[in-house]
């Protein structure tokens, strides 16, 4: 991945270009909070906004995009189908609700939020239909392991373009990343900063001091140098700008390995094989 600047892009296996750095808006309140965050991000040069129906802020996301001075084709917009809305017909309905709330003519990327076991294949078929009809430019999945990707691969006709998973120095899952690379599926990180739980880590702090950067900047740079697309979340102007200021330094291969070695298989969210129990609590 050629990391050049904040507006740099990768090319998905269907030829669509996607920014490698974006703004996540999980837990950003609909209305002014999410709109301001997106405004700060677009002004700082971000060109990808990642939301989901579950976040409850699609309306504000759409308003912020329309109120920006950028043309629609300059902004890459992702949303996701939630667990309760999955299955073939339900997914198609959920998409129409999302696109209406966003007020957009098309989506750049539509993702299955979690791989609901009994309906994963038919949910994927619905995404394929939306893709073939041109309503979405790319399709993918979140929170999947290899066996779930294999299920989609066997039952579907289109391979996911993106896998968005929890990813940070404590949860690397290198084998899964390597599998995705072989399949030409781009890996994207959610919770890249581990919800702030890793920002005092000694190894990361030492590397940050060397480059006169924040730990968050070191982690985001590590993501990008590993070929991982990333969507750090913030609603604060200074943090949004800081998270984008990662293009004037480069980590050494030894530093990448040191950060990789922090992996403990620790999650802040649910496990892809046990999430149904997690969300039924």
TrEMBL record:
Pfam families: Aldo_ket_red. It comes from the Bacteria. Residues 27-262 form the NADP-dependent oxidoreductase domain. The keyword Kinase does not apply. This is Aldo/keto reductase. The keyword Oxidoreductase applies. InterPro entries: AKR, Aldo/ket_reductase_CS, NADP_OxRdtase_dom. It comes from Mesonia aestuariivivens.
């Amino acid at each position: 991945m050629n990391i050049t600047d904040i507006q740099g892009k990768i090319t998905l296996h269907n030829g669509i270009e996607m920014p490698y750095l974006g703004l996540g808006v999980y837990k950003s309140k609909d209305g002014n909070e999410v709109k301001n965050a997106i405004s700060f991000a677009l002004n700082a040069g971000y060109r990808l906004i990642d939301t989901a129906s579950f976040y409850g802020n699609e309306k504000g996301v759409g308003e912020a995009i329309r109120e920006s001075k950028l043309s629609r084709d300059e902004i890459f917009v992702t949303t996701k189908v939630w667990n309760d809305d999955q299955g073939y017909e339900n997914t198609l309905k959920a998409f129409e609700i999302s696109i209406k709330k966003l007020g957009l003519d098309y989506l750049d990327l539509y993702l299955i939020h979690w791989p609901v076991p009994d309906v994963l294949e038919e949910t994927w078929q619905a995404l394929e239909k939306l893709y073939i009809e041109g309503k979405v430019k790319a399709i993918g999945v979140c929170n999947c392991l290899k066996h779930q990707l294999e299920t989609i691969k066997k039952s579907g006709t289109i391979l996911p373009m993106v896998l968005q998973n929890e990813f940070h120095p404590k949860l690397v899952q290198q084998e899964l990343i390597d599998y995705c690379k072989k399949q030409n599926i781009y890996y994207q990180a959610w919770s890249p900063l581990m919800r702030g739980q890793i920002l005092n880590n000694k190894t990361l702090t030492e590397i940050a001091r060397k480059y006169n950067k924040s730990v968050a900047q070191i982690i985001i740079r590590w993501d990008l140098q590993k070929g991982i697309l990333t969507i750090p979340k913030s609603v604060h102007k200074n943090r949004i700008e800081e998270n984008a200021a990662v293009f004037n330094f480069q980590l050494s291969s030894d530093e990448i390995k040191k950060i990789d070695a922090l992996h403990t298989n620790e999650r802040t969210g649910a496990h892809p094989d046990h999430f149904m129990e997690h969300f039924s609590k």
